[in-house]
Design brief:
With 353 residues, the chain is of the alpha/beta class. It has 10 helices and 10 strands. It folds into 3 domains: 86 residues, Response regulator (Rossmann fold); 75 residues, Orthogonal Bundle (Helix Hairpins); 146 residues, Histidine kinase-like ATPase, C-terminal domain (Heat Shock Protein 90, 2-Layer Sandwich). Helices cover 50% and strands 16% of the residues. Helix 2 packs parallel to helix 3 and helix 7 crosses helix 9. The structure holds adenosine-5'-triphosphate and magnesium ion.
Amino acid sequence: MELRKAGYELTHKRVDTYEAMTAALQDDEWDVVLADFSMPRFNAMAALETLKESKLDLPFIIISGTIGEEFAVEALKAGAHDFLIKGRLARLLPAIDRETREAKVRRERRETMEKLLVTVRARDEFLSIASHELKTPITTLELQLASGLRLLRARDVTEVPLERLESKLVVALRQVDRLTALVNHLLDVTKINAGQLTFSRATTDLGKLVDSQIARLDVAVKRARCEVIVHACHQVIGMWDRRTLETVITNLLTNALKFGEAKPIEIRVEREGELARLIVKDQGIGIAPDEQARIFQRFERAVSSQHYGGLGLGLWVTKQVVEAHGGNIRVESVVGAGSTFTVELPLGETTSS
Ligand SMILES: Nc1ncnc2c1ncn2[C@@H]1O[C@H](COP(=O)(O)OP(=O)(O)OP(=O)(O)O)[C@@H](O)[C@H]1O
Ligand SMILES: [Mg+2]
């Protein structure tokens, strides 16, 4: 009555046993528990225990005609939020307001903590994967250099087979390339996180950029045994940041090589009105529908790190760069049949002719 008088619309349930209270807490969502101090088969302290058992963080307010000071103190110590005397309910509304507000603050704090924990865990996992990714080329590099050195020290320098030494240096250099790529990848991420990704837009030919990136990835293409077919329209020219756009092309192409199962990869560059479109299509392992949104997030991968190396950052970086250009990226994919990534970029001013 008191609450209705104050204009509250109430849903309430009266319970007077442990079982009934447990069921009520489970079946519905409540804002506050008001408890009498002693009832024939139940009492406030038992009700408070029942609430604690449910793990719900609800304000618990005792309203009683008989409560003595000692019991009141004991109840507050046990976790009750307030107590009121029947017939003197003026404090009821402010108490409910205050306690529900505080419960809300506690809930929000808990949710923030949980989110932080998830982030920290993701970061820990990322660090361990990143260390592993960095360690692999370092180990190979070390082995190649050490065995080259052994070769040089073991005999007369003039007898060292030069081709063996050369092949060791080639492998060593490849590891340095891999390390450089990894470190650049990490630097991009750090810059994006700090909001320091700098853009210098200049007239850029997308088709030519694709060609130069394919040439740069020549060794990786050969190793993946994928045929790369390019259909590029001429003159798809826009005002874009060349360096970050190279990253976009490289990330999509290295994914297609990695997940493409040695089948042909098609790259298309086309223009429609004021939009440039870059399409990278592979016929590899594909991505399940419920993974397709997740893979664009940081650290998120749809494959296990045992089978495929990688940090789970390529698509996230790609999306950030594309969006910073005012564009968008999407994927269409069928598991086992392949994936198609489509990037759309506005041409930007001064090139719309
Ligand atoms: N072409 C593709 N075919 C199938 N799955 C893909 C393809 N491209 C991306 N994925 C999935 O999306 C995930 C995220 O891709 P992303 O490029 O962000 O990370 P990564 O390649 O695992 O690591 P990184 O690029 O940081 O080295 C991949 O781990 C993979 O599960
Ligand atoms: Mg990748």
